[in-house]
Design a protein that fits this description.
153 residues; single chain; 22% helix; alpha+beta; 6-stranded antiparallel beta sheet; Jelly Rolls
């Protein structure tokens, strides 16, 4: 996968140089390639437990879900973009209502360890600066029964 991405980037660079593309055009093409590879990490709408609506890009939107004995991780928002249409800051509002088991809202950023943003029966609101590169907001459940409301602006 990385090898194919590297080849694509080199080909785009060669084409851009030979056709007279500006630096901004080259960066836009590169960002589009990086973005498309990041979409594969997001959990598909079909596999999600709830309803997701994206905002201006894959980093923002709303997600409302009802879970029954769910164990696993859903990657709801995020990507690998170097430029975010929504800007470099996002405001996250999350409400987790737990009947049984446990749930966490997590942030995966680059190669850093996952950061727990919100846990069982909590309401959470924070504004975060999004780094360039890989950033994902996920929901991790362990036999979780309950509901989650997530809004990222």
């Amino acid at each position: 996968m990385i090898k194919n991405l590297f080849v694509c980037v080199i080909l785009i660079f060669i084409i851009a140089v030979s056709t007279g593309c500006s630096k901004n055009e080259i960066l836009t093409h590169y960002n589009n390639i990086i973005q498309s590879t990041g979409k594969g990490t997001l959990t598909s709408n079909y596999e999600l437990n709830g309803d997701r609506e994206f905002g201006v890009d894959d980093y923002v939107g709303t997600y409302i879900a009802q879970y029954e004995n769910y164990s696993g991780i859903e990657y709801v928002f995020g990507g690998t973009s170097i430029e975010h249409e929504s800007g470099s800051e996002v405001t996250i509002t999350c409400k987790i209502n737990t009947t049984s088991g446990s749930a966490q809202l997590i942030l995966l950023s680059g190669s850093d360890k996952p950061v727990v943003l919100c846990k069982n029966n909590k309401v959470y609101k924070v504004t975060l600066k999004i780094q360039d590169g890989s950033n994902y907001i996920g929901i991790k459940g362990d036999n979780f029964t309950g509901n989650i409301e997530l809004n990222i602006k």
